[in-house]
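re: ur msg from earlier - yeah i can do the FE3-S4 cluster complex, just paste it... oh wait u already did. ok heres what im feeding in:
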Amino acid sequence: MNNKFSVPEAELKKQKEYTELVKTVLNSRFSDKKPKAFVHTYGCQGNVSDGERLQGMLAEMGYEFTDSPENADFVLYNTCAIREHAEDRVFGNAGALKPIKKLNPDMIIGLCGCMTQQKNIAERFRKSFPFVDIVFGTHVSYKLPEFVYRVLCTGKRVIDITDSEGNIVEGLPTKRDGSFKAWVPVMYGCNNFCSYCIVPYVRGRERSRDFDTVVNEVKGLIESGYKEITLLGQNVNSYNKDLPENKRFPALLQAISEIDGDFIVRFMTSHPRDCTKELLDVMASSKKIAKHLHLPFQSGNDRVLKEMNRHYDREKYLTLIDYAYSVMPDLSITSDVIVGFPGETYEEFKDTLSLIEKVRYTSLFTFIFSPRPGTKAYDMPDKVSREEKGKWFKELTDLQESIAGKRTASMKGKTYRVLVEGKAKNEGVLSGRTEGNVIIEFHGDENLIGKFVNVEVTEPKTWVVYGEYRG
Ligand code: SAH
Ligand code: SF4
Ligand code: F3S
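and the outut:
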């Protein structure tokens, strides 16, 4: 596909040439063993998916992978900037590499992703982290072979945080983390500029991958045995929004659900502003689409939603939820919520609690507002103390815990189709997920991992339900 976001063929060819050059250099430097890379990704599934392409490029260059930085010749942190805490962790973990590099001075250290796309952060790494060799942003990650080559040959640092409207790079090698669950991005970037959020600044403008390219990628994955496909985007409902209906997200989901094979498809994230009844109808119509909707509401109060620049109100959100439950009575709904947005009062926060009670979520991702430099909310007056916000937060998580507990209690005695994901902590116990994204554990043979099985719930707890294998 070629659209205005495509990176030119010639540029990609150049990177292939760098890949070969790196391979040659590594072969001569590591004649008796293979060089090892450690890649760690922070943040959302979109970033995890990027990490799989970074790993793919490194594998093509000749790297093998290790799960500890101490054993690595190349360490890459693929970072997240969504909250201050996420950034603090990276500063801490990157700092911890300094003594490791002292022991292995040839080690190359790279930092990339959403955090490094910010100028001030890249500058901080440049100044205060001299042992970091490569710093690059989200728009140029396909140039990893070139960056590695330059460092290998010159020993000099490379810093490239070039900004762009955003780009789409197809055809990069991908080294997926799993063999039966796959992430498939359908779009990149975001145009929404929710007032608290850094994503549009570090990920560029919204851009959609070509419809047939996505469908073919999913077909290929299913042919090679993948059982669960998760379509990714910051706002999947605005996928191809400028194209005719038969190219938009509901049509894409429909087309994927019609692919032959035994698999399940999930998607995230839906933005309530662009989520339509049509999408919910498509979900309801196919057994292959998980009956799980992740629909972040952020706040239950209209004034706060307006300040957040979310473009929907409580009523619109609840109308969507009502419709969703009417066409999918067993639907499992999850969401994201922010506590303590600047200016939020306790009365307003209570609207968030009442919305949670109305919707009865399966689970929630709960966040205390974190000011992100450069966003609109960063400069908004914020009078409520951190301590007070902590109390609200606790009230919210207590409420959600009691709802989740009641929801899982009602699963007792029912049998669910589960994709078995791996071994649980206890010996002989397996762990999987229901369609609704509830974790379920049961005794079973390891060869069930990666397969769909039926499990009857016998002992539900709040965040994990225990059951028995039923074939
Ligand atoms: N595109 C998705 C959200 C992606 S970010 C959507 O619009 O729903 C994931 C979640 O992080 C957000 O839904 C929000 O709840 C939270 N988040 C984003 N910025 C934040 C901030 N500055 N402080 C606290 N939470 C934040
Ligand atoms: Fe951030 Fe809003 Fe975009 Fe989600 S939709 S990524 S919260 S700006
Ligand atoms: Fe974080 Fe970037 Fe995702 S900021 S949440 S890794 S898009």
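cool cool. Residues 184-290 form a domain with the Transcription Regulator spoIIAA fold (CATH 3.30.750.210). ping me if u need the other ligands too
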